[in-house]
Specification:
84 residues; alpha+beta; 3 helices; 2 strands; 14% strand; elongated
Length: 84
């Protein structure tokens, strides 16, 4: 793909060129996500707002859960410091 440039407005908005909107299936009101890669690139992808909303609702609500030692006992049968 060839490079396409766009200007950032004072409000931080960027116009996504029409051909890219068409390729991603973006329409007015579509939701997008920006992912950064290890090499510094930013990847734009379309997201389903219903899925994002359902996932966000549960983010951070798992509670305290098990301790590391409890998890080790479940997976390995013992934790460090347990008698043999």
């Amino acid at each position: 793909m060839s490079e396409i440039t766009s200007r950032v407005t004072a409000e931080g908005a960027v116009t996504i060129p029409a051909d890219l909107r068409a390729r991603l299936g973006l329409e007015p009101g579509s939701h997008v996500a920006f992912d950064s890669t290890d090499d510094g690139r930013i990847v734009l992808r379309k997201v389903d707002p219903d899925v994002a909303r359902r996932v966000a609702r549960y983010r951070g609500h798992a509670g305290p859960g098990l301790s590391t030692d409890e998890l080790l006992r479940l997976t390995r049968g013992r934790a460090p410091g347990d008698p043999f």
